[in-house]
Amino acid sequence: MAVIANAKVETLPEPWSGAIRSGRHQLITDKPESFGGQDQGLAPYDLICSGLISCTMITLRMYAQHKGIDLGAFQVEADFCTNKEGREWIERRVHFQSPPDEALQHKVLDICSKTPVTKTLLRSLEINTQLV
């Protein structure tokens, strides 16, 4: 077994707020005011989207560097969506300052479908919980 990531959250005094620590980094998680939180930090589904888009950005930049391609400046966005039937999905968008040619656009889409976090989200993931 190899651990590739680790994070810990500790409750804060405000309802639904927590301090997340991962390595040397920390951030606040909370719920929006409309859900009774203080909106002091990212909500859990925002964190899922953040993981996906950061992995997408890093993977695209690594690919471009490896192939000697200049993708220029770009942004990646994601929306976590749900409907009345309970179906859930993520809409991801990559915006380039200077759009790549058609062949590279197809390659970018292919790479996006193969990022590590994308692959994790697309397959079943076992979650084991222990009380310690």
UniProtKB/TrEMBL annotation:
SUPFAM superfamilies: OsmC-like. It comes from Acinetobacter bouvetii DSM 14964 = CIP 107468. It comes from the Bacteria. The lineage of its organism: Bacteria, Pseudomonadati, Pseudomonadota, Gammaproteobacteria, Moraxellales. InterPro entries: KH_dom-like_a/b, OsmC/Ohr_fam, OsmC/Ohrsf. Gene3D superfamilies: 3.30.300.20. This is Osmotically inducible protein C.
